[in-house]
Amino acid sequence: MIGVTREGLWDKINEYIHKFWPLFRTWNGSIPEIQIMEADHMEPILRSSVNIKKGYVYDFLHPWLGTGLLTSTGQKWFAHRKLITPTFHFKILENFQEVFVEKTQILVEKLQKEVGNSKGFDVYPYITRCALDIICETAMGTEVNAQENINSPYVDAIYDISEIIIRRMLRPWLRNDFVYSFTKDGKRYKECLEILHSFTTKVIREKKANLKNQTTQQETQHDDLGRKRRVAFLDLLLEASQGDTVLSDEDIREEVDTFMFEGHDTTSASLCWTLFLLGNYPEVQEKVFEEQASIFQDSGRQPNTQDLAEMKYLERVIKESLRLYPSVPIILRHLTEDVTVGEHTLPAGSHATLHIYHAHRNPKYFPNPEAFDPDNFLPERVQGRHPYAYVPFSAGSRNCIGQKFALLEEKTVLSAVLRRFRVRALDAPSDVRLYAELVLRPQGGIRLVIEPR
Ligand code: HEM
User: Fold this and answer.
1) 450 lines ligand 1 (CB under 6 A)
2) Which residues does the record give as heme binding sites (predicted)?
3) N or C, where is the chain less crowded by C-beta within 10 Å?
4) Which domains, from first to last, does the chain contain?
């Protein structure tokens, strides 16, 4: 893969997978990498409580995310996962509904400007900015106003850094930090890191100072204007770090940066792919709309968590969309103990690459794998299917901690967009080329035409 262009990488991976299905070995220098795409083969790796170390690709994220939940391993990961899990409890997520709704309203107003644009527009930047607004407020309790403030250095830095990291991954001669620091990308990378870290550090410092100054319960629960204070993940982490398990400022920054990265790029991709598929399958879109109509009747009221729970069909649509276009298409593990996969033993020290995208298109589990069919997630079809045939949020102990959050956010956004607009995609699935990156993105964006309902 060395020297393959960003645009050509996905096609190359695809070609090899079809040629060597279901399992093959590649070499990264002297390290064997086993490419895995069958549910049976993924299971022993994902179920293991020992093989939880991430592959070397995640090292490229360390300068930004340090060793937060996504990138850490061993005792640190275990202790932090235990500490952070309660902050994703349903009761806490319910509090975020207000933020989801507020930011979605801004999105819908922005999209309104595209009505009548018959040439179409790329919906990706609209969705990304909305997802950024949501994660910024829920993770840090602060606003970046990405939807209003298009020229924000923070938002630009978030955009640029993911792209720069991928370019570096594909160019081994740039792995040396000293050499890299003299390149154009290396300089921009340093700049982005400074912007992102100083923003998070500033927010943490302010929150800590506020926490110290708020002595009464009344002060803790209300802001300076007497409004009810919204609790963010950061508040919960700060609270937790006052107990027995003390998190350092550095620990907290790593976790908040991890939420910022994992919590917006993945949901943006999933939302965009869902709109793309609905724009290609108008009959499915109509069924989504009918469900919305039955929940809201003619009222223009905003959804609460009870409404979201009733959006069963929309949930199947999101799940099916994540089957065809899983936001995280590939995950990697550095095996620390031998593992048996089918008739092979993968030795400790080797690396395993788990191809989620290709696993999801296995005709053994999804008989018509390329078709968009939300009924694939009817309870009777899910029952009896191999539990590792569908793993968009990974599985086992290192599964996605934010999956419930993602589903609530996505339902809120899609409900508002589809109640207000009818969407049509300008490209068919067969026309779209993909970027094989940390997150599965379309080359050329997602081009839609929208009209009012
Ligand atoms: C559609 C949306 C999402 C998808 C498809 C997704 C997918 C994934 C996947 C596949 C992993 C495993 C990565 C690996 O093993 O390398 C993961 C881990 C993780 N995700 Fe998500 N994610 C989504 C949304 C979110 C959100 C909204 C948050 C936070 C607010 C989040 C936070 C995390 C964290 C912290 C981890 C690391 C967990 C650990 O290792 O303990 N994700 N996600």
Assistant:
1) no
2) 400
3) C
4) 6-452 (1.10.630.10)
